[in-house]
Amino acid sequence: MSTRTAFLKGHGTENDFVILPDPENALDLSPAAVAALCDRRAGIGGDGVLHVVRSAAHPEARSMAAEAEWFMDYRNGDGSVAEMCGNGVRVFARYLQHAGHVAEGDLAIATRGGVKHVHLAKDGDVTVGMGRARLPEGEVTVRVGERSWPARNVNMGNPHAVAFVEDLAHASDLYTPPPFAPAAAYPDGVNVEFVVDRGPRHVAMRVHERGSGETRSCGTGACAVAVAAARRDGADPAATGTPATYTVDVLGGTLVITERPDGEIEMTGPAVIVAEGTLDPEWLETAPR
Ligand SMILES: N[C@@H](CCC[C@H](N)C(=O)O)C(=O)O
Asked: Which residue of 11, 73, 75, 76 sits with most ligand 1 atoms within 8 Å of its CB, as the best mutation to test the pocket?
């Protein structure tokens, strides 16, 4: 990394990110450097990093450059790469507006999960077209201590296991990934959501995120939960021909998810820039690479 590296801090329903503007993809962003930045005691702190790169300057995004000028190179807090981050896309869009790269209204953002269409509303909410869910076959069981639950596989570009439970406290501290069976079900790891009902089409969730631990919100996770809840409730939009809208409470706020009969999913929620500054050159020299 260069010695004058700018950063911002932002969050979407308290899923928080270190934002690194790097239009020409010049930063040496190793997994260790990402983990050091996300460290909540010795670094800036965050659930992940949003590396902001021009699509044309990133080998994974060049093919999307004609459609989306900016690529969200998302990294989990442990430095691992993930396919998608739903809250991240909203915060990324808010950053682009904050930096004057885009105005209120519609824009497209390239991600590893394809181009996402975003709407920056006047009221501060950001809506993202999250694409369609895939529902891979297979029975999975998630366990915490003595309790276990069946979980539904939902893929939102990244893998999720959604378990409906009686009490969110039963998920325990979620510091470590909850074990699941069969152990080979997710060779690349999984995000695990625990869900309770709050009312009609209204649920609350906690999540253990692959590569970040328990977070206060997960956008792809909230979409996976809404998709699983609609199937459970007999409200699958493809079957009923009617959109299904779920309010999903997360520890850090509320997200609203709508799935249309064609399977397209939209997520709406807030996205906030909290601070900006530059990384201390001395810290950078000693931070792991
Ligand atoms: N917080 C994100 C999901 C980030 C990626 C996830 N940890 C994974 O590894 O798949 C969201 O808002 O979707």
From this structure: 76
